[in-house]
Specification:
It is built from seven helices and 15 strands. It is an alpha/beta fold. The strands form four sheets. Strands 1, 4, 5, 6, 8, 9, 10, 11 and 12 form a nine-stranded mixed β-sheet that branches. Strand 9 (141-144) and strand 10 (150-155) form a beta hairpin. It is globular and about 45 Å long.
């Protein structure tokens, strides 16, 4: 199975950090954001990856060339093609088998193998990784029926008969998805493909993910999660520096007896 990482966006919600720098290279937990995406693919034994580029592609390509385990195909977009147009441009590389598409600005740890099992069991054309949103989160949501088929898409109010979920930024497609694409170069996978498929009650399903999920796509969230991680790392660092002598008593390791 192959994968595509969507990395062509301007990252405007992260300005000024991304004004002169590609969003996928912003650091988090001692590696670039896209490094976490590659780790996820590596765990699933997916090493053939196409990546689209637009905004400051050269430093991103330089980093990717250091990731020797992977076989990358670089898809340059002098003009941004949208999520759907970007996938369509990669069709020659992806069309032979089912494939994964993943965003480059979220950090999560789902099992792609389990996602594939779900996808095959449902005989799905497209499967979206979804999660239950927290009450404080303001994402557009999807409605799942009892069979986990997506019946409402990107709406603010979910019908009571459906489960309210949100998209996590990871899809799994059958190659037949290309037959559902509109006849144009620039388009959105959500509004121009998914919306129509769901209206037609096509086999589009949502696989529920219950693990940690961090959206670092805005400046506030990026700074929030970096600060949270650095604070936790600092506490861990000091705990390692101290050794316990008696209940409630600690001294630095460098202290003489």
């Amino acid at each position: 199975m192959k994968a595509m990482i969507l990395a062509a966006g301007l990252g405007t919600r992260l300005y000024p950090l991304t004004e002169h720098f590609p969003k996928p290279l912003l650091p988090f937990r001692e590696k670039p954001l896209i490094g976490h995406t590659l780790d996820l693919l590596k765990k699933a034994n997916i090493f053939e990856v196409v990546i689209n580029f637009h905004h400051f592609p050269d430093p991103l390509k330089k980093y990717l060339k250091t990731q020797k385990e992977f076989e990358f195909v670089f898809s340059d977009e002098p003009q941004i093609l949208g999520t759907g147009g970007g996938i369509l441009k990669a069709k020659p590389y992806l069309k032979e088998d089912r494939f994964v598409v993943i965003n480059s600005d979220v950090v999560m740890q789902p099992s792609i193998s389990e996602l594939l099992k779900f996808h095959l069991a449902k005989k799905s054309l497209a499967t979206m990784l979804v999660r239950s949103p927290k009450p404080t989160e303001r994402y557009e949501c999807l409605g799942l029926n009892s069979q986990h088929q997506i019946r409402q898409f990107k709406v603010k109010t979910i019908h009571p008969r459906y489960r309210r979920v949100m998209f996590c930024g990871l899809h799994l497609f059958e190659p037949e998805i290309f037959d559902c694409f509109p006849n144009k170069k620039i388009f959105c996978i959500n509004s121009d493909v998914y919306a129509q498929l769901i209206q037609e009650k096509a086999p589009v399903f949502g696989s529920l993910y219950r693990g940690a999920w961090l959206d670092l796509g805005t400046l506030d969230l990026y700074l929030k999660y970096n600060l949270k991680y650095l604070t936790a790392s600092q506490k861990s660092h000091f705990k390692q520096m101290l050794r316990k002598l008696a209940p409630g008593v600690t001294l630095p390791k460098t202290t003489s007896r």
